[in-house]
Each structure stands twice: as C-alpha cells, then as structure tokens.
Amino acid sequence: MGWGKGFYTCYINSRCFAIMYIFSSIFITKILTVIHAMKHKLLFLLLLFAAAPAFPQSERPKELVQKAIALMDEGNYDASIATLEEALVLDPKNPNIEYELALAYYLKEDYSKALDATKKLIKTKKAFDQVYQLRGNSYDMMGNRDKALKTYEAGLKKFPSSGPLYLEKGIVLLKEEQNEQALATFEAGIAAAPLHPSNYYWAAKLFLGSEEEVWGMLYGELFRVLEPNSERSTEISKLLYDTYKSEIKYTSDTSMSVSFSKNNIIGFSKKGSSLNLPFGTVAYETTLAMSAAGTRQIDLASLNKIRTSFVQNFYKNEINTRFDNPLFQWQQTLLNEQQLEAYNYWLLQAGNPEQYNSWLEQNQAQLDAFVAWFNENGQPISKDSYVHRSKLDNISLTAGE
C-alpha cells in the first residue's frame, strides 16, 4: 500500500482492557529490542566517537565496530562479539562499544553476559537510556519482571524524557495484566517524548478496546503520522476505520448514534466558578454527529466527507476556543492546503483497501502531491506542542462565558 501491516498482533477485549497476545510475551519483547537495536544503528555510526577520545592515528576501532554491527545484523553473534572485544582493546573507554557488546550478547540470548556488560556501563556512570532499556529487557527475558521494572524506573530517574523506557515499562506491566498502570505509563511516555511513536501505538490500542475510543482515535492517528510506513501503521489504519464503522450507527432512515466516549460527567471547580467539560462527549461526539448528518453509510468516501466537515464545524462553531489541539490544527492546515482528502484516504486505507485502490487509480497525482507536502512540512506535533488526554479532558468553562 505504501506508507503502510502490525509486526505482531494483539487483540483487546473491547470492554475490559484485557489483552491476549498471539505471540508469547518473550517473543514480543525480543522483537521490540531487535527493532530498537536496528533503529539506533545509523545514529550510532555517526555518534560513535563523540563521547570517546579522538584517534587521529587510527580509524581501526570505528572500522571494527562497523564490521561488528554488520555481523550482528547477519545473526553472526559470536564473530560480532569477538570483533567488539577487539575494538574495546583499542578503545576501552568508549561506552558505545560496550553497549554494542551487551546488545550482541542479548541477541545471542546470553542474558547473563548482557547484564554484566550493562552493569559495567552503569558503574562507570557512562550509561545512556538504551543501556537501562537493554538491561531491563534482559531481566524480563530471564523471567524476572520485578527487576526489569525496577531497572526501567531507575533509568527513568536519570532519563525522564526517554520514550523507550516508558514503552518497555508499559509492556512489562501489560504482561503482568496491570493494564490501567500500563496505559498510564504509555501516556506518561507520550507526554515525556511526544515524537516517540510506540507509546501512541499501545495507548491507541488500549483505548480503542475500551469505552473511551475517542483517545484511541487521536493517539492512533498521531501514531499513523509518526510511523507511516510500518506494518503496525497499517494495523492502526484498519482499527481507526473499524472504530468509525462500529461507533457511528444509523438507527433508522432519519436518525443515527455516535458513541466514542462514556465520560459525560461535568464537574465543578473548587471555587464553583467554572464547569469542567469532558472532551469526548462535549466536543468530539457532538461535532462528529453534526458532521455525519446526511450520510447513510460508513466507507472511505463518507468518512472523507465526515472528517472534512468535522474540521470545518470544529472551527466554524468555535469549539477550538476551548478544545483546540495540534492535531486538529494540522487537519485544518491540510484542508486549507487542499491536501485533506488524500490524507483521509491514506489514513484509513487499510479499512477498505478495495475502495482505496479504486480511489487511487483516479487520484494518484493527488496522493503524490500530499506525500510531497507531508515530506516538506513534517509532523503536526513537536516536543513542546503535542496532543495528550490531560490537556483536553475536563477543560474549564468559566461562569458567564
């Protein structure tokens, strides 16, 4: 499909936050660590000697590490370990080489030696967040989830903005069936590292399997944008489409229902001068119902119309004055730039691939223009401007407004 299937699949009981893994929890953790390992390779090659002494007389340590990484990627862990040990002899104070050695042991499934290598790094105070991540994962693979959690928490004290550490902690909590704590951890990871995709992925899946689908819709869309080309992204694309289809229901020829949130509690501030309004029912569902008026079915074409009308109604009716957020602002920009239709079809394509392909046959140039625009204009969020449930839910409305 381009820009878009999940590298593993997790089904969620739709009303009880219960998770059933298709793969074993051990395999899931291993996949995650391998993926994290692959992601850091290019960055590692650029930064390898940033924290180490210069070697004007020889490039040999760098060459050895490059060779070791290639061997690791090929699955030749013993040769990779031997090569990294040779590099350490030449550059014994480089923490990145020590980390690569720990990773090679981990991938070889020699978790005790991976723990030894990470312990050495932590003792020398040269550890970075991935060291704690790898150490915690090693404990997890050895069946010691308690020590894994303590390791992630220790890492977060030193690196409070580490998205991967929140991710790993949340996954272990899921394995322990502490789903509410896991969700809170993923959301904390979103707040601490808004550009790290995986916390959005898990938060979206949990919310889309609950009665508060509204947050899964927002987090899922953001994940899709942050990680557009993965199998997980395609998985979320289908989940978003399916949730629209299941929660917008046509009850008769003249009526419909929209249900993305059960939170309809309106609270009062301590002084009693303002109302605390729930975003899901007051802003999202109301605007969505208004935008779906006149449609009689849910497919890609109708969802494009609904989502376009949603943006228009959200700003026309000034709902943004109390519930604005970077995602809806970005959608408005897409509308103004005439890119919203292509974006909507791309976003939800996995829910109805036949209809998407039919649209694409007639609109390839339109999609190409959107992709070019996206590549040039980047993400809708940043470190300082991001979407989070705590920023939107229970917005205060001062008396007299």
From TrEMBL:
The chain crosses the membrane at residues 12-35. TPR repeats lie at residues 61-94, 129-162. Pfam families: TPR_11, TPR_16. Keywords: Membrane, Repeat, TPR repeat, Transmembrane, Transmembrane helix. It comes from the Bacteria. The keyword DNA damage does not apply. This is Tetratricopeptide repeat protein. It comes from Pontibacter mangrovi. The lineage of its organism: Bacteria, Pseudomonadati, Bacteroidota, Cytophagia, Cytophagales.
